[in-house]
Amino acid sequence: MDVVRITETGQIPIPVDILKKLGLKKGDKVMFFEEDDKVIIQNAGKIALDNVRQAFYGEADRLGIHDEQDVAKIVDEIRDEMWKERYANRLYRCEADIS
Q1: Which of 44, 51, 65, 80 lies at a C-alpha separation of 20 to 30 Å from 13?
Q2: Are 43 and 24 in contact (CB under 8 A)?
Q3: How many whole angstroms separate alpha carbon 4 and alpha carbon 14?
Q4: Which uninterrupted H or E stretch holds 33?
Q5: In the chain, which residue ranges form alpha helices assigned H by DSSP?
């Protein structure tokens, strides 16, 4: 058990072994939860990632995504669509100027 001193500004230094256990580094955010007479600290980034994973659970199977190549293919398709949407009007004007 580590004992730390609260600073004048109310900050509490987190012991290095706890930082490592939570996977925290300088600039990361943490969340505090109250449970009975205890305060629990957790890595906010990990909680956010877990929430995203839970929200998308089963979507990879539904979309037929099985590996990194499938993800890369989808990313390429989306980029192509976005490029076409963004530049379609410009291409049309250029073609009209040429004719």
Answers
A1: 51
A2: yes
A3: 8
A4: strand 30-35
A5: 16-22, 44-55, 59-63, 68-98
**DSSP for residue 67:** S
* Overall CATH class of domain 1-57: mainly beta
Low-confidence ranges of the chain (pLDDT < 70): 89-99
- Residue carrying the six token digits 């990361």: 28
CA distance 21 to 12: 17
Dihedrals phi, psi of 34, to nearest 5 degrees: -100, 135
The first and second tokens of residue 86, run together, are 């963004």
- CA diameter of the chain: 79
Q: For residue range 28-48, list pLDDT tens digits in order.
A: 999 999 999 999 999 999 998
